[in-house]
């Protein structure tokens, strides 16, 4: 480390400490609640993800409505995290709240379909393309089921993913390339999975590497986001999707497109809006307005292949097999009712238009400030989602992100933002719009981003 780099690091560390002290001072009740939470929860909160906020502990939510959250210290936040996409419909959207209340009074879970499911099934096909659907309780579960189906019908074991991906608690995807070597993803500990046997990983947008990795003939499926959103935003280069589709078809490999985050692109996700032809489509998070849900949809050809193994029409046999896709509560009446409300009344074309216009305004403000201050950063935008990237050029792969990412600058920005009443996704600097995100929310963000630039300029970080 050069002296200048060490000095800059020292300044950054002090700024983070100052902001975290300010955070503690502003949030006495949350700080106290966190101490108590640690007495009963393995990682402090009811989910280990809740530990990942940059202030040192999470704020405890009191209530949330639209694009705003109020915490138990009485502070208000503009919420651009939106539950890491689970809240993309906005908090407590009226249509979802009404549907949930109505259905809760009529029974939440019965191991029986309701008539709402007929509308939902038809709408999922209309929006996203695939013909045959199954619900799960999370996107992780949907990915797991999609992988299992791929293995069943191909008889192969390996799952190919792109370095820097995240597809939930799917062990096969917990691999990455670092310094040219394949290994467990950063922060994943060995846990008995033989990744050499079940995984293959290549860099995103690298057609030659993909072709070579599929040529072994042992890859059951490629599991991919249409563009990468979990390692900073990595846009897809033109023609990559065509190559991905052609190469997987040629190799007899199933193509699973995971749209859990990229549902923010538009009403049909990236797939529907760009005419992709995945064999299996996966989504989750916001799809039922915050009620836990995942979905996976199969093309007719893949469904036919599955049915040759596990028939679906056999009146004398009540059991299709112990598939266990999705769990006991999957597709329950409550989830179906809220999913219908989301698809019919919240994630509508008109609301997408609004959300995307808001994101465009936010991204252009960020971009203007970056340019005016001659900063080596950029802002990425895809539909209703924007991301501040502390690197000059958009990355093409996970390797570019590893080389350019500035985690301490992210920690400082996140803490500063929370102290100024703004929440962004704690894992990187992703800002998501919901239908209720307003022009004044965007203006406030722009002002706070400008203050942040001032802060680090005065401290000599930039
Ligand atoms: N797929 C993608 C693309 C995701 O980003 C995530 C979670 N961030 C998942 C799947 C898993 O979702 P869940 O944790 O809700 O199962």
Output the CATH homologous superfamily of the largest domain: Type I PLP-dependent aspartate aminotransferase-like (Major domain)
Tell me the strand percentage band. 15-25%
Q: Helical segment tally?
A: 15
CATH topology of the largest domain: Aspartate Aminotransferase, domain 2
Describe the structure.
This protein is of the alpha/beta class. It has helices at 3-26, 28-37, 94-106, 116-128, 139-154, 195-198, 207-214, 240-251, 269-274, 300-309, 333-346, 349-372, 398-404, 407-419, 439-459, and strands spanning 61-65, 68-71, 76-79, 132-136, 158-162, 175-178, 181-184, 199-202, 219-224, 254-258, 280-283, 294-298, 378-382, 385-389, 422-423, 430-432. It has two domains: 3-88 and 349-459, Aspartate Aminotransferase, domain 1, CATH 3.90.1150; 94-346, Aspartate Aminotransferase, domain 2 (3-Layer(aba) Sandwich), CATH 3.40.640.10. It is 42% helix and 15% strand. Strand 9, helix 8 and strand 10 (254-258) form a beta-alpha-beta unit. Helix 1 (3-26) runs parallel beside helix 14 and helix 7 packs parallel to helix 8. The two termini are 17 Å apart. The mean pLDDT is 96. 4'-deoxy-4'-aminopyridoxal-5'-phosphate binds at residues 84, 138-140, 143, 166-168, 225, 230, 258, 260-261, 284-285. Residues 84, 138-140, 143, 166-168, 225, 230, 258, 260-261, 284-285 line the site of 4'-deoxy-4'-aminopyridoxal-5'-phosphate.
Keywords:
binds 4'-deoxy-4'-aminopyridoxal-5'-phosphate, alpha/beta, 2 domains, 15 helices, 462 residues, 42% helix, four-stranded mixed sheet, Aspartate Aminotransferase, domain 2, seven-stranded mixed sheet, Aspartate Aminotransferase, domain 1
